[in-house]
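Re: weekly structure request thread

Next one in the queue (325 aa):
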Amino acid sequence: MRDHGGNLGQAAAHYGGTLADWIDLSTGINTVPYPIGQIPADAWQRLPEPASLRQLERAAQHAYGTASEVVPVAGAQAAIQMIPRLRGAGMAAVLSPTYNEHAAALRACGWRVQEVGAFQALEGSDLAVVVNPNNPDGRVYAPQQLMMLAQTVGLLIIDESFADADPETSLVGQGVTAHLPENVVVLRSFGKFYGLAGVRLGFVVCQSELARKFRDMTGPWPVSGMAIEIAQRALQDDTWAQTTRVRLGNDTRRLDALAVTAGWKVVGGTSLFRTYATDNGIMAQKMLAKHHIWSRIFPYSTNWIRMGLPGTAADWARLTIAMEN
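Done, posted below.
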């Protein structure tokens, strides 16, 4: 089942109200986005220049602290759709439960997919997928573990879509190696940490041969001029990034405290979302929905519920009242 958060229209249709009435905490998207500012007319009117793409790539290398190649794509999801075509279909192993698009995209392209619960079970596969930190439970694997795993599989995909908020979890920029191994692909999402999911921008970090394959699939204009303009500013704004990480850390502790007071148990998560164990996940979601607060539950768990972090004082107040009730 390819269910996702962000389905606010369905929530409003079922529980009432307009979209403006709702607080959407069903995704892990930062609710305090990077300030866009003015966008030059050329970004809308002209095809992106190759030089602008190169500048964007350098900005991403700066933000991620990597010397490997960085390929812009229309969101990490676009890269997930390309990955099955990097090589002939074979046996893939996906560390689960996790973001369901990885297994679905591989199966759609003829891969035999095993969704495994143990890290060691990934070894020996033609292609292995690790979401790190994991969505939705926040599991993290150390760079050294991932480097060792890379030696045992044909191709290792590491989805770091939520690593911007907790950069110490990332394989890139950790000094483990100056360049990634030739069989490793790291995915990064721009929209989640910077709160601009509608920009549809992500990056593939890898070595030159894999980068060439991705660029062949993306074509000459992989992302919009608007995305290039916004992301260049954001990825080089180290002050905003560090301030945001501190705020997210504080807000994470605040949300955990609310949940524990409500009788929920912390399963895990990241600084962008938290996952809790409740007596009944469906009932917990319905309780919040009565207050027009949307959350995320999962088909493989009857008691898990995942929530993003509110972005304003008014939203925190509404959530506090809902949790207390």
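The chain has a mean pLDDT of 95. Residues 32 and 311 are 5 Å apart (CA to CA).
Next request, please.
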